[in-house]
Amino acid sequence: MPATYEPIFTVGPLTSTQLTITFTSIPATYTDLVLEVNAAVNPQSVSILRVNGDTGSNYSRTYMQGGLAAFAGSRTTNDDRMYVNLAPSLPAISTTHFMNYTSTSIYKTILQMDQSYNSGSIMTGYLWRNTAAINQISIEGGSVHLVGSTFTLFGIKAA
Description:
Blueprint: E1 5-11, E2 18-23, E3 32-38, E4 41-42, E5 45-51, E6 59-66, E7 71-79, E8 82-86, E9 92-99, E10 108-116, E11 120-128, E12 137-145, E13 150-156
Antiparallel strand pairs: 1-13, 2-12, 3-9, 3-13, 4-12, 5-8, 5-12, 6-7, 6-11, 9-10, 10-11
């Protein structure tokens, strides 16, 4: 990682299965956040990603997926969550970039790249339609996160 990346929180590697990982009290001292997930779930599933505990229909998503079989893409508005695409074995890697997370005057733009052994690569752009600063991020398993999974939240300092 560049010298401007600072680890804020790390959970894992897990020594037992866990359904939800939550980062709270995120400091407002960075320009952006990056969430690195190296996790597996059982059975194969997507994990739900939410900010500030928001379960309302405030997320929009546009994604492109390419991989083993074909290319796909779609757009969704008024969703009540974001997603982390994971597989039943490691490595299933996801990187999520939260831009301008402390701003209270704009909606938040979130870019995500997922890669797992059997679903190829997925690039997703999210818009969280809320002007609140992000101070909490949770990853809720569609099923349980397996032993060995690691979750790290980085802060990015202005260069």
